[in-house]
Design a protein that fits this description.
Layout lengths: L9 E3 L7 H9 L14 H4 L13 H8 L4 H13 L7 H6 L10 E3 L8 H10 L4 E6 L2 H14 L11 H8 L2 H4 L4 H9 L7 E5 H6 L1 H12 L27 H10 L1 H10 L7 H4 L4
Parallel strand pairs: 1-2, 1-3, 3-4
């Protein structure tokens, strides 16, 4: 594939803690797709603020990706990413060229951080890639926020005790890193301003829990693949994160989270429909 025709076919913009890891694995093993050896590229949300490939522990993911590279395509991609990581400005032609390795297959970028891109960045991306498909997997804000807080505990960013006291939970919810990702109705509204309706689809984490095979089928069809083809040996409900430590959500904390997100739960029910229509009732809201 020439540099002129290389480009991603789709973006999955999240949500964080809503099954994007599951989707990446399903597509990575599907014969109609070539997925980058790094799940989250973070090209549009980190470049300009921090290096695309940060130093320290997070840099290990590049080294791990090299060790796990399947073929020369993966290695070429990683070499190109390393070059891009040294630049301080967005280079859309260079980003598009990353996907030259896909050949005739489908490919895309699954980075939940893109859900919180500013309007000007979204508009720029869509103007350059007018046929780009965009998928967003929405999750009940209460569940999503709790999952993110739990991840922060596992990663040592906050203390385990912060999950036990309502005041501490609310203070953490007000941190920009969580707030920006916790309002799916706003995220969807912002992206819908720039992406044509037929190229933008909202899915729900609820369906991943209730009918993983059905959700897989629907997403792969939207992206242009054949959903009847298996993803290698993976079952549709395969979850590599199932063994990660989970923290129980007490009734007290659940009630505090629900009150915090009450208006967003109602807005999502109205604006997103689908599984979101049932979110307010879970917490006793009409």
């Amino acid at each position: 594939m020439s540099k002129e025709t290389a480009r991603p076919d789709f973006l999955c913009i999240g949500a964080q803690k809503a099954g994007t890891g599951w989707l990446y694995e399903q597509l990575r093993e599907h014969p109609d797709f070539w997925m980058p050896p790094l799940k989250e590229l973070h090209y549009f949300d980190r470049l300009g603020r921090a290096r695309l490939l940060p130093t320290g522990k997070k840099r290990d993911r590049l080294e791990t990706a090299r060790k796990d590279a399947r073929d020369e395509r993966d290695l070429r991609f990683l070499d190109a990413v390393q070059i891009l990581s040294t630049r301080s400005q967005i280079d859309l032609p260079a980003y598009a060229a990353l996907f030259g390795s896909k050949g005739s297959l489908l490919s895309g970028d699954i980075t939940p951080g893109y859900s919180i891109l500013p309007d000007e960045a979204i508009e720029r991306i869509e103007n350059y890639f007018p046929e780009l498909k965009v998928a967003f997997v929405a999750r009940d804000p209460v569940e999503r926020a709790w999952s993110q807080l739990s991840m922060w505990v596992r990663n040592g960013l906050i203390e385990r005790s912060d999950l036990n006291e309502p005041g501490a939970v609310i203070r953490n919810l007000q941190r920009p890193e969580i707030t920006a990702r916790s309002y799916p109705s706003r995220i969807v509204a912002r992206w819908r301003k720039y992406v044509r309706p037929e190229l933008f689809q909202v899915y729900f984490f609820d369906d991943l829990k209730g009918d993983a095979a059905g959700l897989r089928r629907t997403i792969i069809h939207f992206l242009g693949g054949d959903p009847t083809k298996p993803s290698g040996k993976l079952s549709p409900d395969h979850n590599t994160k199932a063994r990660k430590e989970k923290f129980p959500l007490s009734d007290n904390i659940r009630s505090s989270l629900a009150q915090f997100f009450k208006e967003e739960l109602k807005a999502s029910a109205t604006d997103l429909g689908g599984a979101a229509a049932q979110w307010p009732a879970r917490y006793g809201f009409d």
